[in-house]
């Protein structure tokens, strides 16, 4: 008998739930004329590809997370820019060091 599972599905003999497959382009057997199951098996025996970097970075470069909140850091940067634009304001603030002492880099938040 020359009937395969696809033919039985499309004829509705195997299961009525397979009716949704009727209009798909898979219906045409010639779509799979160049498919060989042996080539798929050979490909699965290979080792998976591994990313090899093209450049080496120094080991001193360590990723460190910031201890301060992103929003707070942004607001302080904007404040510093604003204060630096107005020189007389910077001169009136005691101990002005650019960050107004609002963020202490020695303290872990």
Automatic annotation (TrEMBL):
Entry-linked InterPro entries: DDA1-like (IPR033575), DDA1_dom (IPR018276)
The DET1- and DDB1-associated protein domain, residue ranges: 19-81
Q: Which residues cross the membrane?
A: none
The record's Gene Ontology cellular component field reads:
Cul4-RING E3 ubiquitin ligase complex
The record's Gene Ontology biological-process terms are: positive regulation of proteasomal ubiquitin-dependent protein catabolic process
Q: Which domain of life is it from?
A: Eukaryota
Q: Which family does it belong to?
A: Belongs to the DDA1 family.
- Give the protein's function: Functions as a component of numerous distinct DCX (DDB1-CUL4-X-box) E3 ubiquitin-protein ligase complexes which mediate the ubiquitination and subsequent proteasomal degradation of target proteins. In the DCX complexes, acts as a scaffolding subunit required to stabilize the complex.
Q: What is this protein identified as?
A: DET1- and DDB1-associated protein 1
- What organism does this protein naturally occur in? Zosterops lateralis melanops
């Amino acid at each position: 008998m020359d009937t395969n599972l696809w033919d039985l599905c499309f004829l509705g003999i195997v299961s009525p739930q397979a009716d949704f497959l009727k209009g798909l382009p898979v219906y045409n057997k010639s779509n799979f004329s160049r498919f060989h199951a042996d080539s798929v098996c050979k490909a699965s025996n290979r080792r998976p590809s591994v990313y090899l970097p093209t450049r080496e970075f120094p080991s001193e470069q360590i990723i460190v997370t910031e201890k301060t909140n992103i929003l707070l850091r942004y607001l302080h940067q904007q404040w510093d820019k604003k204060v630096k634009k107005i020189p007389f304001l910077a001169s009136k603030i005691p101990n002005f060091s650019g960050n107004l002492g609002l963020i202490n880099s020695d303290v872990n938040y």
